Amino acid sequence: MDDVETFCATHPTQPGQEHDRPSERGRLLLQHAYQQATATTPADPVVALEWLENHGVGGRHLDIGSGVGLTTQLFAHHGWHSSLAEVSTPVLDFARFRLRRRDIDADMIDLSVDKELPRNRFAAITAFGVFAYVSDVDRAARVVCRALAPRGVLFIERSQLLNPEQRQGLGLVLRRSGLRPLRVAAHVAAYRAT
């Protein structure tokens, strides 16, 4: 919470933006991260990183829907060069602040401005809790797939889409985009680029 308090002392909220206050959004995102860390199963980013390390994959990582940058912290601590992509500029600003306080250098992609991702760049992409919140899943999946380097791996959570049709539809889009499914964990799905 020190991050939230310090950030808010240096980044005042503009009048009329109470719904997007960095302090409230930061608090909620940190609370979500705490709940993930205290769950009975390992947090999704931990599962993804462990799979990558066990399979000798390293290099560039992208966390889509990065929130406050916790996944980036984890990957950077394990030697990855990590990038964050987020649709909320205030949340991305807070993530940048948090990472700088920890001497973590990460690239920031503001998806409210940049609608495309760098092509063929990332050995691993984590997109947990993302596809359930986009209006055009097909387009979003294609953009994400293009960002994967050859043999790159995309990780998503299996339960993020509410019904089986949504899950099956996303799987079909990913396979049509040239990805093949991998077995990782019961609650984490992964797809590898060819």
Task: Please describe what this structure looks like.
It contains seven helices and seven strands. With 194 residues, it is of the alpha/beta class. A seven-stranded mixed β-sheet has the order 3-2-1-4-5-7-6, with helices on both faces. Strand 1, helix 4 (70-77) and strand 2 form a beta-alpha-beta unit. Helix 1 packs antiparallel against helix 2 (22-37).
Strand content: 15-25%
The secondary-structure class comes to alpha/beta
Distance between the termini: 42 Å
Spell out the helices and strands N to C.
Answer: HHHEHEHEEHEHEE
Give me the count of strands: 7
Q: What are the segments in which pLDDT stays under 50 over at least 5 consecutive residues?
A: 14-19
Gross geometry: globular
Helix content: 40-55%
Largest sheet features: 7 strands, mixed
Trace the largest sheet across and list its strands.
3-2-1-4-5-7-6
> In angstroms, what is the radius of gyration?
16 Å
Mean pLDDT: 82
Give the count of helical stretches: 7
Helix and strand layout, with pairings?
Layout: H1 2-10, H2 22-37, H3 44-54, E1 60-64, H4 70-77, E2 81-86, H5 89-101, E3 107-110, E4 122-126, H6 137-147, E5 148-157, H7 164-176, E6 179-182, E7 188-193
Parallel strand pairs: 1-2, 1-4, 2-3, 4-5
Antiparallel strand pairs: 5-7, 6-7
Helix pairs in contact: 1-2
What distinguishing features does this structure have?
globular; alpha/beta; 42% helix; 194 residues; 7-stranded mixed sheet; 7 helices; single chain
